[in-house]
Amino acid sequence: MYCPECGVGYRAGFTECSDCHVGLVEELPAPAEVPSPDLELVRVLEGNNQIAAAVAKMLLEEAGIPFYMEGEEVGVTMQAIDPHIYRWWGVQVARDHEAEARKLLDEAVAKEDLALDVDQEQPEIVEDTV
Ligand SMILES: [Zn+2]
Prior knowledge:
The protein is α+β, with helices and mostly antiparallel strands and about 130 residues long. It contains 3 helices and 3 strands. Zinc ion (ZN) binds near residues 3, 5, 6, 8 and 20.
């Protein structure tokens, strides 16, 4: 038994805190979770390559890291019009996921060559030899 006021534990049988004169409770209420007042978002990756954006998204989803995609709305629209238009995008995660996300994305960037500023691929022009 605990006193909800001062948190002092009592043995079974007691019903009232001798200090606070309030009824004891079985268990202390869990401390209210304090929502971080300033959930700070950090941009961990940005680029203009839609494929890289998709990969980054997939990696974060797999890792269960909540993220916010910047520039996505525009990108989708523009892609529908012309898939070759490269749109800027950014990935933001909460500060407490920053290290994890960076590690994940850095590895992917190194491995998959998700260069941040990918040159727009020009279709190869096959010249006819005359
Ligand atoms: Zn008390």
